[in-house]
Design a protein that fits this description.
mainly beta; 3 domains; 16-stranded antiparallel barrel; two-stranded parallel ribbon
Length: 502
Amino acid sequence: MKKFIMLSAAAAMTATIGFASDSDLRAELEALKKEVSVLKKQTKGLNAKRLKKQISQLKAAAFNDNIKWSVDFRTAYDVIGYKDINDNSSWNQIFSNRLWLGMGYAPTGNVVFKGLISYYKAYGQMTNTFGANFNYFDWIVNETPNPNGELRVKEAYWLYFGDSFLGADIPWTASFGRRPATDGLLASYREDQNPKSPLGHIINTEFDGASFKFDLSNVTGISGMYFKICMGRGMTNASIRYAGITPGFVYGVSNQLVISGNGTDYNKVPGYESTDLAGFIFVPYDDGQYSVHTTAFKAWNLPGIVFAGTPSDVTGDGVPDYQGNFMQVGDMYGGAISLLAQGIGDGISDMLDDTNLFVSFAASKTDPQDGNSMLGSSDKKTGTSVYAGANWPCQLIDDARIGVEYNHGSQYWRSFTYAEDTLAGSKLATRGDAYEIWLNKELVGKTLTAQVRYTYMDYKYTGSNGFFADGGAPVEVDSAQGRMMGAIDKAQDIRVYVRYRY
């Protein structure tokens, strides 16, 4: 600092000498001496290291030590069609906007906060909002266009990075919060984004929970090996505050309050337990090109609609209507193994080097509890699913990728893919066959992109998109009962979108 002051004074003196007379020069020199003396007194005691630290802190506050925001905004146009087994068909067109506001903050090198706020809404007011409560079901609320277009928290969690675990050379992470549990590996390709936590073949559902990941590659010498424990809660056995006070009718007088119970808050809801899930993801090998991914889990106290009474035509449309109660009916096991190639061969061609190929097998098994039925049966039922696909650079259009995918699900197949973003229904949950082709195109790099996608689902059994009780019971579509029900035989979804990301 002192050197800087002296140099400045010398520069001022030099400039003055070039333009002043001798008498003026003496006066200027005396004035400069006084200024230098004052500056010396003002800067006395200043610590250069302290100033440097303060400047560094200011930079951190201005550029590094704050939340970083990102924007992902998509406008989509979907043409949706259904045909039932009696050859009745219906079509509709839907415009929708989806906005994701992402946030991230890393106060230290080993702790990160991540969040994602979601808005998803159809253009205009939805005409029929009867039964809209299921539209707000916690597992799917950010993947369905909501009537009022609320901003909701889709993800919010912190992540801790450890360099070693119990003294071993095992890097590890721990995380708690609302987990990034949708659009996992394999399903991520068609969604044109980096894969989230779960294996997309069998789990694509929002939930709150925790995860613990252990990188085993250093201690085993096997490339990419890791083990991850995952836990989540889908329903909490707790009533809301003032749950005993509800609007209703008292002795025929409307707009009164019905008060029941003793007014306890957050007490247990009669007949319900918490719905929990626990499992693991194990990757035995991943060299960046070829990899194997496995997962297994158990879910407890799963809910579904239990039919009550004999079906009758309540709505007057000529089709029997089933009435029932939403109840918890039992547990379920699930698992999947996926094989992935990110590049075919080595240097055969540029296209094969950039081609992704995968095949995945998954299974589910119900375990009814307390005499209940699951998927319409009091016995344990096993279902299976195959998921295969490939995607590669388009040879006719620059900066574009083409993908083709195929799914097959058996009679009792049940996946946790309720949040899969296909408006016609989850193709991964299909009991039957599903076919899909998509084209993703960069318009302005990754900032502005577009997609054209066609999904076709050929159902063999009903209940593909149901829950875990009678509403998920598989009835053969092409059967007398299926025809009486007017069971959906085919479903289609043509989607075109433009997406902005920054």
